């Protein structure tokens, strides 16, 4: 099974490009972020004609997450327990939940499409929201892994964090910025502490996934690596290949992000399930 994640930065503006890429690259399941539309506005027909079903969570022209899959999707969830909200309080005093998380199960593999809050600026309320959002996601992920220790799990998407200095073109430029601050990196490291790993970096140690449209960032290769596939050990055990599709930043009207692709050998699932004694231990 070939899975991918891509912040498409408005699916209505890029539907032709996304569907063409899905077919050309033989993608089974694509997690999308920043679809920027409601369900009534989503271009379902183009995906369906190419053989893909779509599930999505979109509330307005901002944010929004989706999956396109040519395999059956089950157990759809558009929030995780404890997910915090942001913005003006509702009548009941709670904060509105944004469309930033969508979970599905495909062929026994649990996948989440995540659009982590940007943070905007150090000291901005959105920055604190980002840290709380990540803290709650980590807590619920750990609980889920405890309850389902053998099921492959991947959190895929735009994390809006560059965990290493080499994940930005010039760390000096980011000295007073979000995405590289110590609290954000600690929040990212928490997912590694509970047992997730970046399954792409061992196979693709260098390379960016995002280049701003401004100031010729892409021609100068002034990018950031902020899109990740973070997998549990049962998921990582299935990974046979991975790539960052840099060429999708080229051409007419590209997204400012590019796809990150992971190949899985699901035949390994049954083999590993019969040989539990040799499996790496995740929990003490």
UniProtKB/TrEMBL annotation:
Keywords: Hydrolase, Magnesium, Metal-binding. Residues 4-257 form the Endonuclease/exonuclease/phosphatase domain. InterPro entries: AP_endonuc_1, Endo/exonu/phosph_ase_sf, Endo/exonuclease/phosphatase, ExoIII-like. Its cofactor is Mg(2+). PROSITE patterns: AP_NUCLEASE_F1_4 (PS51435). CDD domains: ExoIII-like_AP-endo. PANTHER family: EXODEOXYRIBONUCLEASE III. Belongs to the DNA repair enzymes AP/ExoA family. This is Exodeoxyribonuclease III. The lineage of its organism: Bacteria, Bacillati, Actinomycetota, Actinomycetes, Micrococcales.
